[in-house]
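Sequence, please.
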């Protein structure tokens, strides 16, 4: 099945077709949303943060298959911090790195947008504010950011999920902004989805039970066929409905696949205190402007 790639998106002239694509498909592909120089600025910054990171104190692996990070304080407290998570394949049985440090990190999360001046400047963007309003989020709040490396040869698989399972509001309001900082192809682990898959129910809830995070099944409807690769050029923004099932495969190629993601919620909705990501009262969520 085909979907539209907006070439040089303009919210005013594209407004109707944008709404139709969003409603029908559950995602939008906006090519050239950011420039090559913006991609370079973010990439250089992320690489610099990794260079300065002292990993001798913590080596938490990010793994979406068994959620081994779920019991890890370093992960659970990272919602309002800048923290570093390793690729599973980057650490051997003796706890030693199998690759150089700059090729070992799976992602940096989860408050780059508030704590790092470069990511803050990039994320607080009027175009994203207008787009969020257009998609029905009238009071957008920036909740979570991640710089994802999908490293060559060892870039970990992200299994099929819906973002609202992890960032749950009542009513549902989560939207993901996924910026390709490098070209994303099938070979280096691009996103895959089911067109229109957001029309199904929310299947799972990653929620606090007895003070521990657990994945609870709330609807047994199986996911549809995740048969659509979203191959995109660097500079493309993919906008993802919180209920759209999506995944990315392992990166076995020699090319990395960097992406920056930002997740927003509507401030009018109830963000649950059973979600894993919690912020201190003294560090409230803020909008784009
Ligand atoms: O970039 C990836 O490989 C997966 C990202 C993702 O699924 C997400 O941010 O929800």
């Amino acid at each position: 099945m085909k979907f539209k790639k907006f070439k040089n998106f303009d919210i005013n002239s594209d407004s109707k077709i944008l709404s139709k694509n969003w409603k029908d498909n559950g995602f939008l592909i906006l090519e050239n949303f950011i420039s090559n120089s913006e991609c370079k600025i973010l990439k250089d910054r992320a690489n610099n943060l990794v260079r300065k990171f002292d990993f001798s104190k913590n080596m938490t692996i990010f793994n979406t298959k068994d959620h081994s990070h779920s019991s890890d304080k370093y992960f659970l407290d990272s919602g309002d911090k800048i923290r570093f998570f390793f690729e599973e394949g980057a650490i051997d049985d003796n706890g030693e790195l199998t690759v150089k440090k700059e090729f070992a990190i799976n992602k940096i999360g989860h408050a780059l947008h508030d704590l790092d001046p470069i990511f803050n400047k990039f994320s607080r963007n009027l175009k994203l504010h207008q787009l969020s309003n257009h998609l029905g989020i009238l009071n957008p709040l920036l909740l979570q950011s991640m710089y994802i490396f999908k490293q060559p040869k060892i870039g970990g698989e992200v299994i099929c999920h819906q973002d609202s399972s992890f960032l749950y509001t009542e009513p549902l309001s989560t939207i993901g902004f996924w910026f390709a900082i490098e070209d994303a192809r099938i070979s280096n682990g691009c996103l895959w989805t089911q067109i229109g898959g957001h029309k199904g129910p929310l299947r799972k809830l990653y929620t606090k039970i007895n003070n521990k995070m657990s994945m609870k099944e709330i609807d047994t409807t199986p996911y549809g066929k995740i048969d659509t690769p979203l191959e995109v050029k660097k500079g493309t923004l993919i906008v993802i409905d919180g209920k759209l099932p999506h995944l990315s495969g392992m990166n076995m190629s020699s090319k990395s696949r960097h992406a920056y993601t930002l997740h927003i919620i509507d401030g009018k909705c109830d963000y649950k205190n059973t979600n894993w990501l919690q912020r201190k009262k003294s560090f409230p969520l803020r909008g784009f402007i």
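Helices lie at 15-25, 36-52, 73-76, 112-115, 117-123, 126-134.
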